[in-house]
Amino acid sequence: MDQRLTFNEDSANYERWRPVYCAELFQDIIAYSHIGPGKKAIEIGIGMGQATRPVLETGCELAAVELGRNLAEYTQQKFLEYTGFKVHHTSFEDFAARAGSSDLIYSGTAFHRIPEQTGYPKVLQLLKTGGAIALFWNRPFAARTDDELHQQLQQIYRKFRPGSSPLIEHDTARYNVVSQRLHTYGFREIELKLYHLTRAFSSADYIGFLNTYSDHRGMPAAARLLLEEEIRAAILNSGDVLTVYDTIDLHLARK
Question: Which of 62, 83, 90, 101 is the most exposed place for a label (fewest CB within 10 A)?
Fold first, then answer.
C-alpha cells in the first residue's frame, strides 16, 4: 500500500492526535505570500484539514489535493461553508491545474511523500511568477536526551527497529536538505523559520499518537504490538506522563 493511504484507514485517530499547527506559522505564510481575496492557493495532502482553515479564512480560493478517499470526503464536508474550497481526490502527481495559476502552494507534513523530481518542478510550474511555496513539518521529539524515560524509549526502538535512524531533536541537516532542494529547483528568496511547542501524553494517548504515523502502522502487526506494549509500560512506570517537544520547520520560497 502507498504509505500516503495509511492515514485514510483510521481518520478518527488521525484527527484526534495529529497536532494543530501554531497560529504564528500561518501568520508568517500569509504575510510572505500575500494570500487573500482574489488569490488562488493549493494545499498538498490536506489530511484532516489541520492546516486548512487559516488559509481559507483569508478569503482566497483553495484547491486541496488528497489521495485518501475517506479524507477527501471528510474535509470537503468539514469546510463546506467556504464556497471557494474544493478537494480533489487524487495524487499531486496526477493533479491537473493551469500552469502559472497559483499564488500559494503549501503542504504540511506531507510533501516528503512526493518524489522530489516530480514535486518541486510541478510546484514551480503551477505557481505564478512571484508566487510562494510553503513547506512545513511537525517533528515530535519524546523527552530530552538526559531524560531517563527518553533513554528507555530509545532502547525499545533500537530493539524492535534496529535499522532505523536515531531521532535528532534539532535536525539542522534535514532542514538544510529542504532549503538546498528549493535552491536546486530554481526557487528564490528562501527562508527557514522554526516554531516550538510542547504536549503531554498518557501512555494510552501516546500509543494512539504513534498510530498516526505510516512507518509505525506499516510494521508487522506482531512486532508493532510488542513495541507498543513496552512503550506503554515504560511511560506508566514514569508516572504515566510523557512530554513531547514539537519543532515545526517552515520553508518559504518564491518562484
Answer: 83
